[in-house]
Write a structure and sequence with these properties.
- It is a single chain.
- With about 130 residues, this protein is mainly alpha-helical.
- It has one domain.
- About 70% of the residues lie in helices and about 0% in strands.
- The chain contains 5 helices and no strands.
- It is flat, with a radius of gyration of 17 Å.
- The two termini are about 15 Å apart.
- InterPro entries: Vps55/LEPROT.
- Belongs to the OB-RGRP/VPS55 family.
- Its main location: membrane.
């Protein structure tokens, strides 16, 4: 029951984040679809974690080089997702209001991804691997 509630909450927050992203594109005042390129960052964000989990050893060490490298790449992906709309607004490809909506959507989506891994990434009997 608790995992189902967590899944519903995560899906609701993901929908809110994607709504912010779609509003930054679809509102008539903004009218361009360049902000949709941040979807690429949403899809590639968890990939370093999956690779590190598969390649890294299963020891319970506090730190491993593979895991730290995955954190580094994930941080670069997240920072790039926040930087892209700022650069697009700076060169006037999108308006600053659209940039603000994309940044709000980024915050919600990346917190949703983090929440997913915190809730379902523990490796206990109910984990993300069964989804």
């Amino acid at each position: 029951p608790c995992a189902v509630a967590a899944l519903v909450a995560l899906s609701f927050s993901g929908a809110i984040g994607l709504t912010f992203l779609m509003l930054s594109c679809a509102l008539e005042y903004y009218g361009v679809y360049w902000p949709l390129f941040v979807l690429i960052f949403y899809f590639i964000c968890p990939i370093p974690h999956f690779i590190a989990k598969r390649v890294g050893d299963d020891s319970d060490a506090a730190s491993s080089a593979c895991r730290e490298l995955a954190y580094f790449f994930t941080t670069g992906i997240v920072v790039s997702a926040f930087g892209l709309p700022i650069i697009l607004a700076r060169v006037e490809a999108i308006k600053w209001g659209a940039c603000g909506l994309v940044l709000a959507g980024n915050a919600v989506i990346f917190l949703t991804i983090l929440g997913f891994f915190l809730v379902f990434g523990r490796g206990d009997d109910f984990s993300w691997e069964q989804w």
